[in-house]
Amino acid sequence: MNSLKSLFTETFKLYFANFPAILLIVLPIALPVEWIKNFYYADYYESVWTTMRRDGLVEFLFLSVITPIVIHYFHKKETGEPARLSRSFIVGLRKWPRIILYGFVKNVVVLAGLIFFIVPGIIFYFRLFFMDIVITLEEAKGRDPLGRSRMISQGNLIPIMVSVVVLTVLLLLTEILQSFVVYWLIDTYWLGDTLIDVFADLTGVLHLLLGLKFYMKITGSQAREPDAAPVQSETASACAVETQG
Hints:
By secondary structure, the protein is an all-alpha fold.
């Protein structure tokens, strides 16, 4: 329990300490996408099911590019390597098609599990929790992101489930409160929905950072100084020379 509490603390610290960078990543993508969706396609009288389907499709096809950008940028920061937003955007755009492709496969697997047995569908979701991270960060191992994600989550399923559920509930309560405030202050339906959706996109980054923290903890990735590895290598070389002498 203490390790999960520490993980949450580190995740929120990372989020708020780098919030300006998160704004620079999310807003240029989410703001126009959410505005177009709500201004041109949303209907005040439509059913909740219609809204959920449209929002899910928009998130899957367009907003999913945010995922690899965030993962790449914050992984660089956590490992002590130079983190540049421009480079992360390039990597994110390059990884985006695979995120969509394997995201579709993941959704099919999870949906099939939910339809036929329910519980296996939930388990499948958490087994594939690291899929986007594997696609973004791992080259050779990332060729099978579904299998690699299952391997990483093996033996860690319960902590992952507890952490994701707790974070989801916290964000849901925050979004409900924010929705009341927005609709109380703003009468324009499409503008209020756009602000609410963009807020959800910004807070959704917490899920990505939590997953990245879990991934680094499980795989043994450690934050390090950029020059730590070369120094160690040079020291080893010097020792080898002395031994030979």
